[in-house]
TrEMBL record:
It comes from Ataeniobius toweri. The gene is HECTD1_2. InterPro entries: HECT_dom (IPR000569), Hect_E3_ubiquitin_ligase (IPR035983), HECTD1/TRIP12-like (IPR045322). This is E3 ubiquitin-protein ligase. SUPFAM superfamilies: Hect, E3 ligase catalytic domain. It is an enzyme of class 2 (transferase). It catalyses: S-ubiquitinyl-[E2 ubiquitin-conjugating enzyme]-L-cysteine + [acceptor protein]-L-lysine = [E2 ubiquitin-conjugating enzyme]-L-cysteine + N(6)-ubiquitinyl-[acceptor protein]-L-lysine.
């Protein structure tokens, strides 16, 4: 029984079990499997930042206008030269690191980009014009296929406001 007298010991034992003893077999299996793919002794050739980049992607996603134009697919009402798509490019370029992470989470289901950035995002981000939408409409997504349905907003400010508001929503009601 846990009592006031042994509560601290209980917490220490539970922590040890949850973080060490209880997952020891799983950690050994992970290490063995990882070692088969990439031997651990070779890891010393890389910094911890390089290993993190390979395993987790870029934690501070960055892009520029050329990246967005070259590695996204405007379709169904948008072209690379259409005013709405050009506004989209400028809005994305003006985002902060946290806003970019939120945008990626909203559109792809992951807040990071793979190594190589947008060039290595597969499937590519597709941006289509949302039918029957107005300035008061919000963008919506099909996350699994990286498909953004974006209204033809009348200004960058409105697009930015609606896009950022949509990225803060949780759940599937904007898909």
């Amino acid at each position: 029984m846990v009592t006031v007298e042994n509560a601290e010991e209980y917490v220490e034992l539970m922590f040890d079990f949850c973080m060490h003893i209880g997952i020891q077999k799983q950690m050994e299996a992970f290490k063995e499997g990882f070692n088969q793919v990439f031997p651990m002794e070779k890891m010393s050739s890389f910094s911890h930042k390089e290993v993190q980049m390979v395993l987790c992607g870029n934690q501070s996603p960055s892009w520029n206008a050329d990246d967005i134009i070259n590695y996204t697919e405007p379709k169904l009402g948008y072209t690379r030269d259409s005013p709405g798509f050009q506004r989209f490019v400028r809005v994305l370029c003006g985002m902060s690191s946290d806003e970019r992470k939120a945008f990626l989470q909203f559109t792809t289901g992951c807040s990071t980009l793979p190594p190589g950035g947008l060039a290595n995002l597969h499937p590519r981000l597709t941006v289509v014009r949302k039918v029957d939408a107005t300035d008061s409409s919000y963008p919506s997504v099909n996350t699994c296929v990286h498909y953004l349905k974006l209204p033809e907003y009348s200004s960058e400010d409105i697009m930015r406001e609606r896009l950022l508001a949509a990225t803060m929503e949780k759940g599937f009601h904007l898909n």
